[in-house]
User: What shape does this take?
Amino acid sequence: MPNSFGHARLGVVVGKKTAKLSVQRNYMKRTLRELFRQHKITLGAIDILIRPLKAYSRDEFTIVETELEQLLNKLRNKVVV
Assistant: This one.
């Protein structure tokens, strides 16, 4: 959704049904925040909420990175800032 703050904001929700251990949930949130931080400047003034449906580990990080980049590219094309 567009916002009036002038910069992109992120919300990350990782539930216990997705990843049972808090270590896994915190790893997922940390990596998603870092990937968002790398692309934040190019997004404009929007709010983004990310809710992973499947747990991932370090082995699958590159897959998650490419999927998030694709989604952010779609979002950039869709939202007119």
